[in-house]
Predict the 3D structure of the following.
Amino acid sequence: MNFNHKALFPETDNIELLQHQIVTKRDLLNFGNLLLNEIKNTNNTDTSSKQWLKSAEVRELLKISPGTLQNLRINGTLKYKRIGGIIYYNYEDIIKMLEK
């Protein structure tokens, strides 16, 4: 993520001058606002662009029941990763399964 120094420090024309300056509360506030806007913009993704999907998202995408999804896991048709108590499915693996 590259920010334009003019967005962070509008009063500074030369980026070289920034190497010798102290960061102020105003600078931190500017950075926080830019970072928050960047996070908001990248968080607006739909299910098809996610790499890893949770079980509920996969069931909704495939329009299947929890039992059917469990059977796909058990018989090895659909690969998954368990992290803690949550099961994740790779979107590309779901597409490959549908193409077979």
